[in-house]
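fyi for ur records
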Amino acid sequence: MLTNTYKTRIEWVDCDPAGIIFYGRYFDIFELATTAMLERALGMKKADYLKAYGIVDHPLADTRARFRSPTRFGDDVVVDTAVVACDRMSFKIEHRLSRDGTLAAEGYETRIWVARDPDDPRRAKPQPIPAEIVAKLTVSDPSS
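which gave:
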């Protein structure tokens, strides 16, 4: 399955007054890691692939996290992201965020492929993921 590594730094805006990351910010980091992985796999920026495939987004249907070790202001972290399952209209992703080789947080997401409802453009509804996208999500190396 598709994998990607995303690197970032824990900034002051991510932290509480004690300089420890606020737990909700992990979900923001996971969102950025997911986008980076999909942009790499599809070979285009998110704004471009949303338009190219006629979708609204790939919103979360389910998410959770496990917090193992705190990260703090100034820490450089690495997020290893992997697609672990893909079906007709959704895909599952796992994230492993580490600092200096120590696992700090794990994230789990189920995302749905969503387009505008042709009967009511004010609404969105799940759509089948195009076969070429499924192929890119389920390949080990997106450059192949």
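Residues 37 and 73 are 25 Å apart (CA to CA). thats all i got for now
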